[in-house]
Each structure stands twice: as C-alpha cells, then as structure tokens.
Amino acid sequence: MHPCRNRPALKPRPRIHPAKFVLAWLALSPLTMADDPAPKAAPTTPPPLARIEKFTADQRDHWAYQPLADSEPPDVKEAGWVRNPIDRFILADLESAELPHSPEADRVALIRRATFDLTGLPPTPEAVAAFLADARPDAYERLVDGLLQSPQYGVRWAQHWLDLAHYADTNGFELDSERPDAWRYRDWVVGALNADMPYDRFLALQIAGDELEKGDTSALIATGFGRSGPRELVGGNVIPAVKRQNELTEITGTVGSVFLGLTIGCARCHDHKFDAIPATDYYRLQSFFAASELVEPPIAPRAEIDAFDAAEKAIAAKIAPIRKQLGELEAPYRKALADAKQAMLTADERALLATAEKDRTPQQKKIIQGLQNSIRITWEEVAEAVAEAKVDFARREALKLQVHQIEQTRPRPPAHALALVDDKPTAPDTFVLRRGDVKSLGPKVEPRPPGVILASQRKDAFPNDAIKADEKTTGRRAGLARWLAGADNPLVARVIVNRLWQHHFTRGIVATPSDFGVRGEPPSHPELLDWLAAQLIKEGWRLKPLHRLMVTSAVYRQSSKHVDRLTELDEENSLLGRMNRRRLDAEGVRDAMLAVSGELNPKMGGPGVLAPLEKEVKDLIFTEAEVVDLWPVDPDPREHHRRSLYLFKKRNVRYPLLESFDAPDNQTACPRRETSTHALQALNLLNSETTIGRAKALAARILREAPNDQADRVKRAYEVVLCRPPSPAETARADAFLDAQRQADGESAAWDDFALALVNCNEFLYVP
C-alpha cells in the first residue's frame, strides 16, 4: 500500500441502526422484476444542456485535465550518465534529493529484462551468447530493435491490453457459455500491436470501427472491445430494460477507466463523491452507446454459410428421432413429478393458476410467478427420477451419448464477429437514472464527454457537428472516438504512456493507472509524464518508439540490487535510483517453462486452446455423472504448448498455475495485477502436472543437447534456464544433488529432479 498524500483525514462513520440500514438499502435498490410497471419518463424533461456546467477553479485545474506542459528535459550535473531525455528527468530529482543512481546492470540481466518485458519470453542461450559477443557500442539498441520486431511482442503486450478489456472466451455468470468467435478480437489486438498501429487509431477502431470504416471486416472485429466483458444471458425475473442497462453500464465504465483513466462508473447512481463527474455526465457518456447493439454478424463468404446451414439441417434431422425417444422415455417421470408438485398446491392456488392471463391483476401475476417457479420441473429432477430406474437410466444415458456424438460431427460455424454496432440512424433517448434505477427516470441527456474535461480545455460547449449521423448509423461513437483521440485531449495520451511506463518499471508515474482523479495518486514525475505524452503525439501516436525510448534509457538499464542509502531514504524507489526487480506474471511463468523445456509452440492466432486440467480441479468443477465431456481437451498435444494468451479463457474456470500467480478472473478490468506470495504457488511449482511435465521435457532437452558428460549437462542446464554458466560452487552443489538423486531414483529421475529444482529458482522466476 502507498501512503495517501495531501488527503484530509477521514472522519469515523456514525453507527446506523440495522433496521434503518435495511430500509435505506431498499429505498436505493435498483432491482426491477419482470412484471413491475414499465418505466415512465419524468413529468418534465428539460432540453439537453448544450453548454458546460460551472465548475470550481480547483475542479477545472486538476492536473490530469490540463494541456500538456511544455516540459524541457532539465539540466543535470552528471550529464555523462544520460542516454536519452528520460534520464534527465529522473536524474534531476535524484540529484535534488542528493541520492545516487545505481550502476548499469550486467549484460545477462539486461538481455533477460528486455526480452521478458518486450516479448514475455526468456532469451535463448544462443541469443545471450550473441549479445555478449557483440562489441558494437549500439549492441543493446540493436537487441531492442529486434525484440520490437518480433511477433512475440504483440503477444506479450496484447496480454496487458486484454487485461484492461477483461477479455475472455466465455460470457461469465452462472452459465459461463462460450463465445465461439471472441478470439478474433484477441487476434486483432495482437496484429494491431505488431503492426505498430497508431494508438489514436487503435483506440478509435475499438470504439467505433463500424462507423469509421464501414464495410471493413477488421474494423468491425475491433469493436469487440465493447463485447469483451461478462454478459448475463439468463433472463430470469429481470426485465429487458435492466439487462440493457447492465450492458451499457459495462461499456461506459470500461471506456471511462481504460481510455480516460477515471472511475467514472462511480457516478452511475449519484454524483461522483470525489471527482467533478455528476451523474448527468455519466449518462451523457453512456448516451454515445445508446443505439449500439451487441451483435454477431457473419463475416464468412456466402458459400461457407450455406454449406454450414446445410450441415446443421442434416445433423438436426439425425438428432430429431433420438430426442423424440428421450422425450418419450422421460414423459412418465415428468408427469409423476408434475402431479406430485400440483398435489402440494391448495385449491385456491390451483384456481389462481387457472385464471386467464388477461384477467390477472399485477398482484396476482407476482403470486402466480412464484407458484410457477415452485412447480417448475428442472432437468436435475428428471435426471434423478430416471436414475432410480436403472434400465431407463442406462437407456437415457445411451441416447444422450448418441446425441453428443452426432453433435461432435458439426463443422465449425462460419466466421462471425463479436461486434458493437449502430444499425440505425437514430438512438433511443437517454435519461439520468436516479440511484441507477431504470424505473426512476430523471432528465433527458444528449451525448457529451465529461464536462469538467471540456471546461479545463476552456470550452463552453461540445460542438454540435462533433456527431455526424448518416442513413445507417448515429455516428455517436465515431464522435466520441474523434474526441478521445483529439490532439487537445491530453488525458488519453497521459493515461496510455503511464500504462507503458508501469509495465516497464513495475509502477506507473501515476501509481493508480485507471484513476487519474483527485483520489488517485499524483504523478511522481509530472514533467516526465507530460514530456512522454507529447512524444507519443509527436511520434504519430506510435507505441514502439515510446517502448524503445523507455527501455534504452539509463534509468531502465540500472541494476536492481539494493543500495543501503537508496533503500533507507527512498524505500519505495519512487525516485527510481535503481531498477525494480519483479516476478514474472502468471503467463510469463508458464510460457518461460515451455520455452526452456523446448516445447513452446510459437503458432499464433486461432480459437482458444483447451489444454488439460489437473484431474482434481476438473472433478471439482464437473460432476462424474456428466456423460458429455464439458472440457474437451484439444487432441493435438502440441496445441497444449501454445503461449498462455492462446489458452481458452473461461471466466469461471482458471488454470491452477495461472490462478495461483494472480492471473485475473476477467470479471472486471484489471489495470494492475496483484503480486501475492502464498503456499499454493510453491505447491504448484513443485507438484503440479504442468510443472512436472515441463521439468521432464527440460531434462530430456539437456540430455539431448549435452550428451557428453555431467559437467557439460549442468552447464547447459544453467545456460538454458538462467542464461548464464554455473559458478564452481553451483557446479559442486549440482553434482552432489545429482549423485544423491541418482542413487535413490536412477539416472533419468535425477535429471528430472534437477530440472524441476532449476525452474523453482527465484533467479528463473524473477526479472532482474
């Protein structure tokens, strides 16, 4: 935790009587049931305010909203240390605090650091040897340029972006059903980053690709950003207006946090408690998406679609008679269950159920809905009833298996895009929802960015021509995209360069990467932040030049070793007198093990891969009674060794190794991952099937590549895993370990254990 700076002391909360608390909660609750009356507009709906509201000087002058300062790199005493302008900003603060910088890290540390940061993989022994042998003065810069051109760069940095989009291959919630074409958006992100698509275009296409580039399939797929979050598909008792509002809430909050770095979602039910974002501005931002629909349009050729439809009809024809047999088999059990449940009803309840729909009062509808729920027959009840009759149960399971086997012959559906589109030129009205309740409509609002940002730009209104509708779309999202990516909107540039800095230096210049508001942390180096944002715009919003600038700086090249005086006076290293050592993230741990074992499959793109789950995990999630395999592992074992980005991401089921190393569940946007330390991590690294399998493959690789003697094998193992040869003391310890293990378990097992020990080393798991 970082101490709060420049914040008033919080007063103790007054105690609230429980009964009053419950009554207050009920009064605020936005839940709406299916048979509640439809929402009605407020008696008067004042016209939308074209002009910007009045804000105080403090609100307008918040640092994050101001134009970029014309920051010149400061003069420093130790100019010989400086490699690029970034170093001047950092060194000036260190010199002001009378603190030293750290010496440059050794070359092995540098190549490991840069390779992991830019590609998410460890360097190969051959790459390390080539770098160590390269005596040219720009050898490191050449290394960085090569890493930025690697296709693995896009894989690595797509993972950071998809954390923000909270991408997954399933919808989440109770059903957590698959999104068959979600991966197309993931692949679009990888491709855009590898092509160094300018960030303003990268942003704009994800918000309004369908409006900005009509008819372009790639731009349509990019709008999958707005489809990446969880989505509840079970209707239940919630009315469509509530479901629709939940979708808009998800999109609005994500856009606000990811692109603007603001907790704008806090203004959904009331004015933001801290930032100058009234609820009206929340719904104005939401209004940009009022006409947007979550759709899955086909993008495959017509012939492919027709062939799939024909195959579907043929499969349906095969399944129909089997389903008929299932229905006939289950019919007597369903009738018995229905009779038993009906018998539990009173005469009055049965009479009420018999009442014609048109004659039911609203109160009776609620009662009837409850009665219908109580007598509804579930598939679990039918399954339990049939299971008691062993003959029928066996026949039922055999029929289900036949259906499943036929369904498995279904061809992969033709390509669709998970998209967010406007398919008409007009949008439904947007109203402020009092307390977030769809039944309590406040004033009508029109699309407009947050007023405080416009006010800080000294604008008194949002231009009427910012939104341009045509015969097919409202043009609202395109207007929002143009405003976000505008040269006079410095907040967007500040937010993205801070995210890049965070991933290279462990902590952002703003330590709260998705909260640039008044409750977020102020920037540790505000002039540097503005200079970097200005550089981004100067470079045409391209990200790779910013990466290069950061990782070739002297600041980045510093050693991460602790220096007593630095640690004592700057414990959190906020002045960056040394580099921050960090542990590999969850995907980095798995991918690094695959890389050093020689098993890594570099294939890119395509549907998410279902790799094996540990048996105990699968048994916890799926019951043994299931005839159908709910986790059909990819039959090609080479696919199991793809990079972690390409694993099938099910929101409710995470791979144990990834979960234990803090991979997010993708239920909400993740701007910064936690780095926890607990026993499950050690248990996974020592005992999981994943780790043991990689250790065995690593041992086989060592024996294959260094067949001569034990000394060569130990040396090769260290070079592959830790990117360096072992010291004499390490060689002696390795020999003693191998001799002991060999006597206990044999030659092959000894090398397996040695490989397992190496991938459990902190030196392997941490970036120096």
UniProtKB/TrEMBL annotation:
Residues 1-34 form the signal peptide. InterPro entries: DUF1549, DUF1553. Pfam families: PSCyt2, PSD1. Residues 85-292 form the DUF1549 domain. Residues 476-738 form the DUF1553 domain. Keywords: Signal. Coiled coil: none annotated. This is Cytochrome c domain-containing protein. It comes from Paludisphaera borealis.
